[in-house]
What we know:
This protein is an alpha+beta fold. 30% of the residues lie in helices and 20% in strands. Strands 2-3-1-4-7-6-5 form a seven-stranded mixed beta sheet. Helix 3 (75-83) packs parallel to helix 4. The two termini are 28 Å apart.
Amino acid sequence: MSSPLSSSALVITTSRGLSPFLETEFKALDIAHEAISPGVYGLEESIDNAYRVCLHSRIAHHVLWRLTRFQATEPDDIYEKLAKFAWFKHFASDKTFSIDLNIDAQKVKHNTQFLTFRVKDAIVDSFRHFGHDRPNVDRGQPDVLVTVFWDGEAVQVYLDLSGGALHKRGYRKAQGEAPLRETLAAGLLYAANWHKAPQGSQLIDPFCGAGTVLIEGALMAYQ
């Protein structure tokens, strides 16, 4: 994921090639936006904007709300800052959490797993410092996903409001060896102008596989 190092506190991400279609959705939702980097957009800090993207976008991957940002050149700097941050104000200690760490590999030479553990320790120690029980980590299905970006100097920490990747719609119970990601299927439909098709139009996919394009097409038609 590209690093959203910008002034925007609300960041929306998608695959680089899907950017034009995400912009189409922004226009349809009447949401002002700025391009930060390929596949990364900043929006006005508004919970209404965040909800609308989470509920209506078929192209967005993540909806990120920035909690804090600061300068740090070493892992201990990150730990000290995050250990003093009041995490208990953003999620309760009975909720599980996981960390999605994104670093600039050209500038950061520290081990990613070690950095992830340092962030985890900081969050846990913060809860204890403020008199709360420690929350547990769940890498599979966490209640809260914390996303951290570090380029070796600047750190930005986000809460993933989408609770994970938005391409996981909930209707896929099983998948084959090479499933088509739902956001990509939606992008193909936008490229074919399916979102502009008259009511009652037919959508045919003779090589449908698991039927992802058809399902996304049906959902778009009835949205």
